[in-house]
Design goal:
Distance between the termini: 41 Å
Number of strands: 4
Strand content: 5-15%
CATH architecture of the largest domain: Up-down Bundle
Bound molecules: glutathione
């Protein structure tokens, strides 16, 4: 199985972590959606990553892919709760992370810092500040309220909801703006709980190497 995506995509991160947690063997291929291969649209008409190729089967969208892993590898560690309310809640938290949290972190922090610099533009500090002080706290407070002193967002074991929230927050870490434990004690304890899992530690090492190369490229261009 091949997972196509780019190293700092939170959706690719969710899919890779799901595969690792389920012990599914995969090969990772770099696919930059902004410099895509010619067959990109045939792989995903929405022209987004991640995309999985499993033999003849091609599947896009991180949520669809995680559901596919669960159905295909039913004998591995379950990442979707069986109990109906926990199942529904896991899907809801996944959706919240993939839409609202992603929008704020991607448009309000990641792009204004990293993509701007990659395009030779200055960091948009005003947008970052506005996001960190106004938009993002609303999202984080909601997640904090959904977690409280529970170990996992839904049910009593790690699920796709936990991986989805973590995967979005990692881009705040990369940007140097991880929320504080003082402001969000439950959410940050949850973040650390996942961050210290072997899957997340391994993935993080490869991401920081990639980020280091990207930052070197940016500073050499500024020269
Ligand atoms: N709902 C999709 C979202 C995927 C997505 O937005 N991926 C971003 C990268 S993080 C992308 O491919 N963006 C390219 C674009 O918007 O043109 C999923 O869960 O996979």
């Amino acid at each position: 199985m091949i997972i196509h995506g780019s190293a700092l995509s939170p959706f690719r991160r969710k899919v890779v972590l799901s595969a690792m947690e389920k012990n599914i063997a995969f090969e990772s291929r770099d696919l930059n959606p902004y410099a895509p291969p010619v067959d990109f649209e045939s792989m995903n008409p929405l022209k987004r990553i991640p995309i999985v190729q499993d033999g003849d089967f091609t599947l896009a969208d991180s949520s669809a892919i995680c559901g596919y892993f669960e159905a295909k590898h039913a004998d591995t560690q379950a990442l979707f709760p069986k109990e109906p309310t926990a199942y529904g809640h896991a899907l809801w938290i996944e959706e919240y992370a993939d839409t609202a949290l992603f929008a704020d972190i991607s448009e309000g922090v990641f792009r204004p810092i990293f993509i701007n610099q990659l395009l030779g533009k200055p960091v948009d500090h005003a947008t970052v500040e506005e996001t960190l002080s106004v938009a993002l706290p609303l999202r984080l407070r909601y997640l904090e309220s959904q977690l409280e002193d529970r170990t996992w967002f839904a049910g009593d074991s790690l699920t796709v909801a936990d991986l989805s929230v973590y995967s979005q927050l990692v881009n705040l870490l990369h940007a140097g703006h991880l929320p504080s434990s003082e402001s969000y004690p439950y959410l940050m304890a949850h973040f650390k709980r996942i961050q210290t899992r072997p899957s997340a530690e391994k993935l993080h090492r490869s991401e920081t190497a990639y980020l280091g190369q990207m930052l070197e490229m940016i500073s050499s261009r500024k020269g």
